C-alpha cells in the first residue's frame, strides 16, 4: 500500500523510504510563527509555509512596484544638497502639480504612521528627501508658537509652554532606507530652511506626539531626552 | 562605545562563514557579558545561538548594551579582507546612535593596519528564551567526522536518521538511488590519543530524522573546533553544540522530521 500511495505522487525520496516524513517547526514562542504582517507590505502570512511564502512574494512584488512608482520623483524645486541626496522643499507657492505629488507621498506616509490624511497644504511645508530620483522620506512641518518639554522616557509633559517657531507634524522614512541618516538630515534641513533666510535653532523645533521610532530619532537629533512636543490643532 | 579586540581574526571569520548559509541577516547583541547572537532561519526550522564571552577577548568594553543588525553576506565579504593571524578590533560608537560597525585588522608585526566599516540594518526579529533541558542522549564526536558523515550521506538522500544507543550511534539515509549508513561505536575514553573517538552518554535510546540541508550548513562550523556534541531527546529539537576554545560556543537547534500520520 505504501508503494501505491508514493507512486501516485511525484517521484521523490518517498519512493524508497517506506514512511513519509513531515518537517516540524521550531516553536520557542517567537512571534513570527503565527501569521505576522510583513514589515514592508503589511500582508500577514506564516513564515516557512511554502504556499504562504509564495503568495506573499507575489503580493510583495506587486506592492513594491506600486510603491516604487509612487515614490518616483523627477521634479526639481528648491532644494538643499545633503551627504547622500537632497532635500526638496514644497510649499503653497510651488506648482500645483508638485504640491499634489507631495501630498500623495505624505499620505502614503500617513498610511504607514496611522495618521489622518492631509488634503490641503495651507501654510505648512513638505520636506522630501530625494536620492537617485526616489523619495526616501518626508516631513510635514508647520508654524506653531508654543510647545512643552517631555518627561524623559514617558509620554507626559512637564513645565509650562515654551515659545517655539516650527513644529514637525509628520516624519517618515521609507522602511528600506532607514538607518542611514535620512531622518536626521531632513530635520536639519527643516531647521535651516523652514523660515526663509532665517535658520531656526534646534531649541525652537518641536515634534508632535512621537512613535517609538520617532522618539529615538528626536533624542538623536536634539541630543536630549526631554525634547519639545506639541499638540496638533 | 563598544570595543572588542580578538587576538585572531580567523575565529570570527570562521564563525561568520558557519552562519551565513543558514541566515542572511541577523541582530548581534553586545552586552557587558560579551557578544551574542540568536537567529532563526526564515523557515523556522533551525535556530542558531552564538555566544562569545567577554573574557575570551583580548580586551572587551561595552558601556551600554546595544543591538546591531548586520547582513552576514556583506560581513563575510568584509572579513575576507582580514588575514587569519591579524588582530581584529570591532568597535562602534553609540554616542550619536550607532549607524555603522567598524572593524580594524592589524597584522602580526603591526606593520599593516586596515580599517573597514559595515552599514547597519534595522532588523525586526524577536529574541526567544531557549529553555535549558536535560537531554536523553548526548553524543560527543569529532567535528570533522561529523561533517564527513553529513557530506557522504547528502549524496544518498535528503534526510538522515540518527539512532543513538548505548553501543553506538548510527547515521543512515535513503534515497532514490539507494541507501547508506555509518555506525560509530562508543569508546570509553575520549581524551588522550584518539581525537576521532566518539562517546555517548545515554539514558534511553533516541532516534531522530533530520533534514540534511540544514545539517550541511551546521557542518560549516566544524573548522572552529575539534569536537561537536549532539544533544537529543525524543520529540524535541535536536541541539548541536560546537564549543569555541576558551571563548564561547555556537549552538544549532533543528526541528526533527516526524512520521506522517496518514
From TrEMBL, chain A:
<dbReference type="GO" id="GO:0000785">
    <property type="term" value="C:chromatin"/>
</dbReference>
<keyword id="KW-0808">Transferase</keyword>
<keyword id="KW-0539">Nucleus</keyword>
<dbReference type="GO" id="GO:0007064">
    <property type="term" value="P:mitotic sister chromatid cohesion"/>
</dbReference>
<dbReference type="Pfam" id="PF13880">
    <property type="entry name" value="Acetyltransf_13"/>
</dbReference>
<dbReference type="GO" id="GO:0061733">
    <property type="term" value="F:protein-lysine-acetyltransferase activity"/>
</dbReference>
<keyword id="KW-0863">Zinc-finger</keyword>
<feature type="domain" description="N-acetyltransferase ESCO acetyl-transferase">
    <location>
        <begin position="164"/>
        <end position="230"/>
    </location>
</feature>
<keyword id="KW-0131">Cell cycle</keyword>
<feature type="domain" description="N-acetyltransferase ESCO zinc-finger">
    <location>
        <begin position="23"/>
        <end position="61"/>
    </location>
</feature>
<dbReference type="InterPro" id="IPR028005">
    <property type="entry name" value="AcTrfase_ESCO_Znf_dom"/>
</dbReference>
<dbReference type="GO" id="GO:0005634">
    <property type="term" value="C:nucleus"/>
</dbReference>
<comment type="similarity">
    <text>Belongs to the acetyltransferase family. ECO subfamily.</text>
</comment>
<keyword id="KW-0012">Acyltransferase</keyword>
<dbReference type="GO" id="GO:0008270">
    <property type="term" value="F:zinc ion binding"/>
</dbReference>
<dbReference type="InterPro" id="IPR028009">
    <property type="entry name" value="ESCO_Acetyltransf_dom"/>
</dbReference>
<protein>
    <recommendedName>
        <fullName>N-acetyltransferase ECO1</fullName>
    </recommendedName>
</protein>
<dbReference type="Pfam" id="PF13878">
    <property type="entry name" value="zf-C2H2_3"/>
</dbReference>
<dbReference type="InterPro" id="IPR016181">
    <property type="entry name" value="Acyl_CoA_acyltransferase"/>
</dbReference>
<keyword id="KW-0862">Zinc</keyword>
<keyword id="KW-0479">Metal-binding</keyword>
TrEMBL record, chain B:
<protein>
    <recommendedName>
        <fullName>DNA sliding clamp PCNA</fullName>
    </recommendedName>
</protein>
<dbReference type="GO" id="GO:0043626">
    <property type="term" value="C:PCNA complex"/>
</dbReference>
<comment type="function">
    <text>This protein is an auxiliary protein of DNA polymerase delta and is involved in the control of eukaryotic DNA replication by increasing the polymerase's processivity during elongation of the leading strand.</text>
</comment>
<keyword id="KW-0235">DNA replication</keyword>
<dbReference type="GO" id="GO:0006275">
    <property type="term" value="P:regulation of DNA replication"/>
</dbReference>
<dbReference type="Pfam" id="PF00705">
    <property type="entry name" value="PCNA_N"/>
</dbReference>
<dbReference type="InterPro" id="IPR022648">
    <property type="entry name" value="Pr_cel_nuc_antig_N"/>
</dbReference>
<comment type="similarity">
    <text>Belongs to the PCNA family.</text>
</comment>
<feature type="domain" description="Proliferating cell nuclear antigen PCNA C-terminal">
    <location>
        <begin position="130"/>
        <end position="256"/>
    </location>
</feature>
<dbReference type="InterPro" id="IPR022649">
    <property type="entry name" value="Pr_cel_nuc_antig_C"/>
</dbReference>
<dbReference type="GO" id="GO:0006298">
    <property type="term" value="P:mismatch repair"/>
</dbReference>
<keyword id="KW-0539">Nucleus</keyword>
<feature type="domain" description="Proliferating cell nuclear antigen PCNA N-terminal">
    <location>
        <begin position="1"/>
        <end position="127"/>
    </location>
</feature>
<dbReference type="InterPro" id="IPR022659">
    <property type="entry name" value="Pr_cel_nuc_antig_CS"/>
</dbReference>
<dbReference type="Pfam" id="PF02747">
    <property type="entry name" value="PCNA_C"/>
</dbReference>
<dbReference type="InterPro" id="IPR046938">
    <property type="entry name" value="DNA_clamp_sf"/>
</dbReference>
<dbReference type="InterPro" id="IPR000730">
    <property type="entry name" value="Pr_cel_nuc_antig"/>
</dbReference>
<dbReference type="GO" id="GO:0030337">
    <property type="term" value="F:DNA polymerase processivity factor activity"/>
</dbReference>
<dbReference type="GO" id="GO:0003677">
    <property type="term" value="F:DNA binding"/>
</dbReference>
<dbReference type="GO" id="GO:0006272">
    <property type="term" value="P:leading strand elongation"/>
</dbReference>
<dbReference type="GO" id="GO:0019985">
    <property type="term" value="P:translesion synthesis"/>
</dbReference>
<comment type="function">
    <text>This protein is an auxiliary protein of DNA polymerase delta and is involved in the control of eukaryotic DNA replication by increasing the polymerase's processibility during elongation of the leading strand. Involved in DNA repair.</text>
</comment>
Amino acid at each position: 500500500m505504501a508503494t501505491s500511495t508514493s507512486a501516485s505522487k511525484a517521484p521523490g525520496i518517498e519512493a524508497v523510504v517506506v514512511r513519509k516524513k513531515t518537517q516540524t517547526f521550531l516553536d520557542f514562542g517567537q512571534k513570527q510563527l503565527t501569521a505576522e504582517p510583513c514589515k514592508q507590505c503589511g500582508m500577514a502570512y506564516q513564515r516557512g509555509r511554502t504556499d504562504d511564502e509564495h503568495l506573499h512574494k507575489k503580493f510583495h512584488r506587486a506592492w513594491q512596484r506600486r510603491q516604487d512608482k509612487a515614490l518616483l520623483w523627477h521634479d526639481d524645486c528648491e532644494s538643499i544638497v545633503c551627504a547622500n541626496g537632497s532635500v526638496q522643499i514644497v510649499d503653497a507657492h510651488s506648482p500645483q502639480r508638485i504640491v499634489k505629488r507631495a501630498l500623495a507621498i505624505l499620505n502614503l506616509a500617513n498610511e504607514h504612521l496611522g495618521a489622518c490624511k492631509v488634503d490641503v497644504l495651507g501654510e505648512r511645508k513638505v520636506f522630501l528627501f530625494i536620492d537617485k530620483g526616489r523619495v526616501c522620506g518626508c516631513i510635514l512641518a508647520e508654524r506653531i508658537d508654543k510647545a512643552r518639554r517631555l518627561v524623559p522616557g514617558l509620554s507626559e509633559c512637564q513645565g509650562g509652554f515654551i515659545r517655539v517657531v516650527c513644529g514637525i507634524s509628520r516624519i517618515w522614512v521609507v522602511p528600506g532606507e532607514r538607518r542611514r541618516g535620512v531622518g536626521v538630515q531632513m530635520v536639519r534641513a527643516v531647521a535651516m530652511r523652514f523660515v526663509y533666510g532665517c535658520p531656526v535653532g534646534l531649541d525652537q523645533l518641536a515634534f508632535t506626539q512621537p512613535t517609538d521610532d520617532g522618539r529615538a530619532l528626536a533624542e538623536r537629533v536634539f541630543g536630549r531626552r526631554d525634547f519639545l512636543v506639541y499638540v496638533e490643532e | 562605545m563598544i570595543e572588542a579586540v580578538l587576538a585572531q581574526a580567523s575565529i570570527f571569520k570562521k564563525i561568520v562563514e558557519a552562519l551565513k548559509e543558514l541566515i542572511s541577516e541577523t541582530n548581534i547583541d553586545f552586552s557587558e557579558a560579551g557578544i551574542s547572537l540568536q537567529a532563526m532561519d526564515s523557515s523556522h526550522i533551525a535556530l542558531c545561538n552564538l555566544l562569545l564571552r567577554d573574557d575570551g577577548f583580548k580586551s572587551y568594553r561595552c558601556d551600554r548594551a546595544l543591538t546591531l543588525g548586520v547582513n552576514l553576506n556583506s560581513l563575510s565579504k568584509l572579513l575576507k579582507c582580514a588575514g587569519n593571524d591579524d588582530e581584529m578590533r570591532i568597535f562602534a560608537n553609540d554616542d550619536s546612535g550607532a549607524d555603522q560597525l567598524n572593524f580594524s585588522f592589524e597584522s602580526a608585526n603591526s606593520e599593516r593596519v586596515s580599517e573597514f566599516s559595515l552599514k547597519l540594518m534595522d532588523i525586526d526579529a524577536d529574541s526567544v528564551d531557549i529553555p535549558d533541558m536535560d537531554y536523553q542522549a548526548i553524543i560527543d564526536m569529532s567535528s570533522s567526522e561529523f561533517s564527513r558523515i553529513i557530506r557522504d550521506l547528502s549524496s544518498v538522500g535528503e534526510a538522515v536518521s540518527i539512532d543513538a544507543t548505548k553501543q553506538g550511534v548510527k547515521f543512515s539515509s535513503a534515497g532514490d538511488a539507494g541507501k547508506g549508513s555509518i555506525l560509530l561505536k562508543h569508546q570509553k575514553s575520549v581524551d588522550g590519543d584518539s581525537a576521532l573517538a566518539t562517546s555517548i552518554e545515554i539514558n534511553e535510546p533516541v532516534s531522530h530524522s533530520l533534514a540534511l540541508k540544514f545539517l550541511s550548513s551546521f557542518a560549516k562550523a566544524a573548522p572552529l573546533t575539534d569536537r561537536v556534541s549532539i544533544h537529543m531527546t525524543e520529540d524535541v529539537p535536536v541541539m548541536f553544540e560546537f564549543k569555541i576554545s576558551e571563548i564561547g560556543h555556537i549552538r544549532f537547534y533543528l526541528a526533527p522530521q516526524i512520521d506522517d500520520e496518514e
